[in-house]
Amino acid sequence: MRPVLHHAITLLALLVSAVLPVWATDDPKAFVTAIYQNFIGANGILIDSPKARQVITPGLMKLIDADAKAAARRGQPPRLDSNPFIDAQDSDIKSFTVEVQDVGRARAVATVRFKNEAAINDGPVILTLVKSADGWRIDDFRGDSGSLRKYLSRKPKR
Questions:
Q1: 3, 44, 69, 127: most buried, per Cβ within 10 A?
Q2: Number of structural domains, the chain?
Q3: What share of the chain is helix, strand, coil (3-state, %, to 5)?
Q4: Domain membership flag for residue 62
Q5: How many CB atoms lie within 10 A of CB 56?
Q6: The CATH number of the domain where 38 resides is what?
């Protein structure tokens, strides 16, 4: 009976791990690496996708949504006119590197470097990460264009 119980527990653990998203991890580097794997040979994660909502904090997502809604009311494109994951509109990324620095309790900063063949700028993207009950989440993106959180927090110029 004991071997059967052991096999049942092992099977249950495998099933649970298969259902969890790959970014449901305690390791911030593994979290960021799982996100950027989506950009290799593909368009990656779009900012208005369900995947983005799983990896970005609700606070930052609220700013992104407010920008999109305000733009729709004005009949104009949103101020966020690029993909903050790559600080560009288009992507052609073959590889990337991730460096993570712990900066406090449940906080980290990740620097993602890549060569984007589809963009002019190749500066790194710096992610401010916070750990919530659901795991790591991105709380800000910084690239050549600056901090997304600060940019979206300012009132638009009229």
A1: 127
A2: 1
A3: 35, 30, 35
A4: yes
A5: 25
A6: 3.10.450.50
